[in-house]
């Protein structure tokens, strides 16, 4: 899978979940009443549950293979996931665009060097100044 596919897949997944900012909420009943084991989202002025963890029976809320795990930690991770995935997807997309611009600039520089080599440097100092300007411009835009 290339980055374009990863970006498209992430954006599609984000578009399919409950909209709005997700946050952690407290359970109102069950064995976790009063604990932060609910993920909520506010949509159209109404806050509703998106995910409930550990409401009726414990899941992973103890020491697992040397890692202290609490339901609250899992819920906080889930609540933060959409915003984190969006930020990482945006960063990957920006990095890919930057890389593409750098590859295009490198291609132009290689073409110039090949022409210079093929013509035994006939292009002269003006062409080299243009190359340096291209390199300078490329380094600012990437």
Keywords summarizing the entry:
142 residues, two-stranded antiparallel sheet, 3-stranded antiparallel beta sheet, alpha+beta, 3 helices, 5 strands
Number of domains: 1
Enumerate the strands of the largest sheet in spatial order, edge to edge or round the barrel. 1-2-3
* CA distance, first residue to last residue: 24 Å
Portion of residues within helices: 55-70%
Structural class: alpha+beta
Can you count the helices?
Answer: 3
Largest sheet: 3 strands, antiparallel
Low-confidence sequence ranges = none
Residue-averaged pLDDT: 81
Strands, total number = 5
Shape: rod-shaped
Give the C-alpha Rg.
26 Å
Order of helices and strands: HEEEEEHH
Strand content: 5-15%
Write the layout of secondary structure elements.
Blueprint lengths: L2 H14 L5 E4 L12 E6 L2 E7 L10 E2 L2 E2 L2 H48 L5 H18 L1
Antiparallel strand pairs: 1-2, 2-3, 4-5
Helix pairs in contact: 1-2, 2-3
Task: Give structural notes.
This protein is α+β, with helices and mostly antiparallel strands and 142 residues long. It has one domain (3-141). The chain is built from three helices and five strands. The protein has helices spanning 3-16, 71-118, 124-141; strands at 22-25, 38-43, 46-52, 63-64, 67-68. It has a three-stranded antiparallel β-sheet with strand order 1-2-3, covered by helices on one side. The chain has a two-stranded antiparallel ribbon with strand order 4-5. Strand 4 (63-64) and strand 5 form a beta hairpin. Helix 1 (3-16) runs antiparallel to helix 2 (71-118) and helix 2 (71-118) packs antiparallel against helix 3. The longest helix is centred in the middle third of the chain and has 48 residues, at 71-118. The two termini are 24 Å apart. The mean pLDDT is 81.
């Amino acid at each position: 899978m290339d980055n374009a596919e990863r970006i498209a897949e992430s954006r599609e997944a984000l578009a399919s979940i409950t909209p709005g900012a997700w946050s952690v909420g407290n359970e109102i009943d069950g064995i976790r009443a009063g604990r932060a084991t609910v993920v909520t989202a506010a949509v159209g002025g109404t806050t509703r549950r998106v995910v409930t963890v550990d409401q009726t029976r414990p899941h992973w809320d103890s020491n697992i293979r040397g890692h202290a795990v609490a339901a609250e930690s899992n819920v906080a991770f889930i609540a933060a996931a959409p915003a984190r995935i969006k930020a990482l997807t945006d960063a990957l997309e920006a990095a890919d665009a930057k890389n593409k611009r750098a590859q295009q600039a490198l291609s132009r520089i290689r073409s110039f060097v090949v022409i210079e080599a093929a013509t035994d440097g006939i292009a002269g100092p003006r062409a080299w100044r243009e190359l340096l300007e291209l390199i300078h411009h490329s380094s600012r835009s990437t």
